[in-house]
């Protein structure tokens, strides 16, 4: 028997939260935006109670999925050990713990291991804990970190003397990022403005743990830009970056002279993104000036005063039509380049070595374990290290850490995520399909399933994101095994607006091209059916944050395309949010969605914003998830969608809202609660796919 109550085509029942809290003078439910009004929390709690009652028949399935997930993973987790100059560091998470404990021992003396930061203990008095950043002083005597205990992404700064000093709270309500100067006595951090934009960088002088008054280093006045900070691996320079979604500007401070005023490397140029790295004698400039897919140039460090003159930049990797340059990591011997193949939507790592005269002596790509896959450079704190740590994974390859010796080419397995239970990674099959979208563009679609079920149309969960140039490279998921073991397929639509096929892919799915993302998602859905992968009657959609916009807009275009949808902290009130510059992130997002003060941009956003395009249509059953402390997508966006869909009364099944009253945008912070929340969503998906009675 299905958990779903009978469909009611008319207005909601008088005892439903929507009927009880409805205000005829506010049909758009904008009153929910006033979090100080007691009725707002009352409404959300009433919706949570309604959700719990509806979900009760599935509670047993939730517990089975949750415990099945626990049985498949290694609960006691030991992180890889990373040696720095004086000590070796790693984390350990006990089998029953939500949070890790950080340990260290003097290099070469593992018998003298000792803990130095116990996050499990720090979380004991809080419903939520998120570590923002953790920074060791260069001499490894001091540890600074930021933590958030509400989920609103406001962080407090703590400092302790290692190995066992008492933590001292130095500052409250700052940004998460921290960077030490090389003098072991100066710490840099960021502060927010009223819209929670990192708008300033500050310097904090410390004398044996006692802090002076913070000193302003740099303030960004343009509300579309935010500040970040870091340090080159060479330890020579602190880099402060001011960036919008499509323009950036870097400032340099000598790391050993942190009181030096920041020097602008090159004044910003609208539409030009530029990032820096450094090797003694040279700066490396990754930029898209007259190069939409990015290029890599080099400039002599001695010519730093003339860096603003682009004629002084010398080409190292030219612009290419077939690849996007995504990143550069500098070492004493050369560079590791991250680049993405447009045709195959595959990331690659490229090693370039130079001699003392900066002549290229080596240029090769590192091997891939399979395609498609994820490949990334791991922790590499030492500037001269020639053994690279690589992180590899795919839909069928658990997270694997490899040490690659640049001199011998030898690959050594350091660690692979252990998988327990009856469904082994080698029993899975992964395919890459290519859908054809409305304008003829080829859209990558990845799908994973049990190998023994390949060739049969399967119930399918289709996932998408499609914004900010974010890449959905293949990733392994232990929780996903619970769905796959029961016979479902999991698919990813690599739609335009993401970065899966490089920078052109991102540009073709933002601003005036945003509608491509929604059409691509629907094309991916149809492709799965046409290739016999998916049962067209049993495809559910999943989107979170900007992915919630993707799914919500797709449902407005084709409400019958999916049997169900999960929208997690979904960005669905796009026009109203972008009209309010006082909300966090709004002004910084103008270059992603458009500024509605401009008539053309307003018209475009209005045409796809999910809440502005609801109709009396046969929407599928929906599970909407929000978070009370979410500052990125406020709780009221999913709450409004729930209320208005319920009032429409035309959905083919239940529309449910659950709001986590103790979390932020990322959901629960403790791993067990997060896994349980995931099991709840999976139970809903299995129910919607008609698979709630299947066992793994």
From TrEMBL:
Q: Where is the Peptidase S9 prolyl oligopeptidase catalytic domain?
A: 475-691
Q: Where is this region: Disordered?
A: 1-22
Pfam families linked: Peptidase_S9, Peptidase_S9_N
Database matches in InterPro entries? AB_hydrolase_fold (IPR029058), Pept_S9_AS (IPR002471), Pept_S9A_N (IPR023302), Peptidase_S9_cat (IPR001375), Peptidase_S9A (IPR002470), Serine_Peptidase_S9A (IPR051543)
Arranged from A to Z, the UniProt key words for this protein are: Hydrolase, Protease, Serine protease
Q: Which domain of life is it from?
A: Bacteria
Peptidase S9A N-terminal domain residues are 28-417
Please indicate if the UniProt record lists Protease as a keyword. Answer: yes
Keyword Hydrolase part of the UniProt annotation? yes
Can you tell me which family this protein belongs to? Belongs to the peptidase S9A family.
User: What's the protein here called?
Assistant: Prolyl oligopeptidase family serine peptidase
């Amino acid at each position: 028997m299905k958990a779903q109550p009978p469909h009611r085509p008319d207005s909601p029942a008088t005892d439903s939260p929507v009927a009880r809290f409805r205000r005829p003078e506010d049909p758009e439910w904008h009153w929910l935006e006033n979090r100080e009004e007691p009725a707002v929390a009352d409404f959300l709690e009433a919706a949570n109670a309604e959700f719990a009652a509806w979900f009760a028949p599935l509670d047993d399935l939730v517990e089975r999925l949750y415990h099945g997930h626990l049985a498949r993973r290694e609960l006691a987790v030991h992180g890889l050990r990373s040696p720095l100059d004086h000590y070796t560091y790693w984390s350990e998470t006990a089998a029953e713990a939500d949070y890790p404990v950080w340990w260290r021992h003097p290099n070469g003396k593992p018998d003298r291991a000792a803990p130095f930061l116990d996050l499990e203990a720090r979380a004991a008095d809080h419903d939520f804990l998120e570590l923002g950043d953790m920074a060791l002083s260069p001499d490894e005597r001091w540890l600074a970190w930021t933590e958030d205990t509400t989920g609103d992404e406001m962080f407090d700064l703590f400092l302790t003397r290692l190995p066992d000093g008492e933590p001292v709270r130095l500052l409250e309500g700052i940004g998460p990022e921290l960077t030490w100067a090389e003098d072991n006595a100066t710490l840099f951090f960021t502060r927010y403005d009223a819209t929670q934009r990192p708008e300033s960088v500050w310097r904090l002088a410390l004398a044996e743990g006692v802090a002076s008054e913070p000193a302003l280093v740099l303030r960004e006045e343009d509300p579309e830009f935010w500040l970040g900070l870091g340090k080159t691996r060479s330890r020579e320079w602190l880099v402060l970056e001011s960036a919008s979604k499509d323009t950036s500007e870097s400032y340099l401070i000598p790391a050993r002279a942190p009181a030096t005023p920041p020097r602008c490397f090159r004044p910003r140029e609208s539409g030009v993104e530029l990032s820096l790295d450094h090797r003694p004698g040279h700066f490396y400039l990754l930029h898209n000036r007259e190069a939409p897919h990015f290029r890599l140039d080099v400039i002599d460090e001695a010519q730093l005063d003339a860096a603003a003159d682009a004629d002084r930049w010398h080409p190292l990797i030219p612009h290419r039509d077939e690849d996007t340059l995504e990143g550069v990591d500098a070492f004493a011997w050369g560079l590791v380049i991250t680049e993405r193949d447009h045709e195959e939507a595959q990331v690659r790592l490229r090693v370039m070595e130079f001699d003392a005269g900066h002549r290229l002596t080596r240029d090769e790509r590192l091997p891939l374990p399979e395609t498609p896959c994820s490949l990334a450079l791991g922790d590499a704190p030492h500037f001269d290290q020639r053994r690279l740590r690589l992180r590899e994974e795919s839909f069928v390859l658990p997270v694997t850490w490899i040490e690659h010796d640049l001199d011998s080419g030898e690959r050594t397995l350091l660690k692979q995520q252990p998988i327990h239970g009856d469904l082994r990674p080698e029993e899975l099959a992964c395919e890459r399909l290519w859908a054809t979208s409305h304008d003829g563009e080829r859209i990558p679609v990845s799908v994973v399933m049990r190998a023994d079920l390949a060739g049969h149309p399967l119930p399918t969960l289709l996932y998408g994101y499609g914004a900010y140039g974010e890449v959905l490279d293949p990733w392994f998921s232990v929780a996903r095994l619970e769905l796959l073991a029961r016979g479902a397929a999991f698919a990813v639509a690599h739609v335009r607006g993401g970065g899966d096929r490089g920078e052109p892919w991102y540009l073709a799915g933002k601003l005036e091209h945003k509608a491509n993302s929604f059409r691509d998602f629907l094309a991916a859905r149809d492709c799965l059916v046409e290739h016999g992968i998916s049962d067209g009657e049993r495809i559910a959609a999943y989107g979170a944050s900007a992915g919630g916009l993707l799914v919500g807009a797709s449902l407005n275009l084709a409400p019958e395309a999916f049997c169900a949808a999960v929208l997690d902290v979904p960005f669905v009130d796009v026009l109203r949010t972008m009209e309010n510059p006082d909300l966090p992130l709004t002004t910084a997002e103008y270059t992603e969605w458009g500024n509605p003060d401009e008539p053309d941009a307003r018209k475009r956003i209005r045409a796809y914003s999910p809440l502005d395009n609801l109709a009396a249509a046969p929407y599928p059953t929906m599970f909407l998830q929000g978070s009370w402390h979410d500052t990125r997508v406020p709780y009221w966006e999913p709450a409004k969608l729930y209320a208005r869909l319920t009032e429409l009364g035309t959905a083919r099944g239940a529309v449910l809202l659950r709001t986590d009253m103790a979390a932020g945008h990322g959901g629960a912070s403790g791993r067990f609660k997060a896994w349980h929340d995931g099991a709840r969503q999976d139970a809903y998906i299995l129910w919607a796919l008609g698979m709630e009675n299947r066992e793994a």
